[in-house]
Write a structure and sequence with these properties.
mainly beta, 12 strands, 7-stranded antiparallel β-sheet, disordered C terminus
């Protein structure tokens, strides 16, 4: 390589950007809020998370990061199967309940009226959710002070809730009411497959 081909690259961040930690930066990413439930009846355990993401379409898999040594991680790995309850914007109280360190186990904690149905494995479902994913743990991957759980989606259902609950900047938010497109040729949101790289 000739001297003319050797260049030193210098970082050029956009104007207005500022140095921050990874945690502070990712707090600015809006994410959905879910409660993972596992077990059954007296052993029912739930934990609020906002780290769930779709990891694969074929086969359908999700990933979620839980703090190593946490009660939620221990419960999910012990149960092997769990349900993702995607909370609606009317379920902020449930998000806060299942995030409390003293939340306990069993169906009584959040109130018996919040449950609606269960899976074939007996895992209780939170009624009024945007949707539910029934999952089976496939493997875990160590990721710093967390464990990344990779789980196969074995069943999926949509609910009747109109809007999801969001976590943004460490605060729970409701989504503004959706507006109808202003023109007939308004661009539709891409499907899941349209957002993936070509095979």
């Amino acid at each position: 390589m000739s001297p003319a081909d050797t260049r030193t690259l210098v970082a050029a961040w956009p104007d207005g950007s500022r140095t921050a930690t990874a945690g502070a930066t990712t707090r600015e990413f809006a994410t959905g809020v879910t409660v993972l439930t596992c077990g059954g009846d007296e052993s029912t355990h739930g934990v609020t998370v906002s780290t769930l993401t779709l990891a694969s379409m074929k086969p359908p898999m999700v990933s979620v990061a839980l703090r190593r040594g946490s009660r939620g991680l221990t419960a999910l790995l012990g149960a092997k199967t769990f349900v993702v309850n995607a909370l609606s914007d009317l379920q902020e109280s449930l998000a806060r309940h299942f995030a409390r360190p003293d939340r306990g186990e069993g169906l009584d904690g959040p109130g018996l009226d919040v449950w609606d149905g269960r899976t074939a494995d007996g895992v209780p479902l939170l009624g009024g959710a945007v949707g539910w994913l029934e999952c089976r743990v496939e493997r875990t991957v160590a990721a710093g002070d967390h464990e990344l759980i990779l789980a196969r989606v074995t069943s999926a259902r949509l609910g009747n809730a109109a809007a999801p609950l969001l976590n943004f900047a460490g605060t729970l938010h409701r989504v503004p009411p959706a507006r109808a497109p202003s023109a007939p040729d308004a661009a539709a949101a891409p499907t899941d497959d349209d957002t993936r790289s070509p095979r």
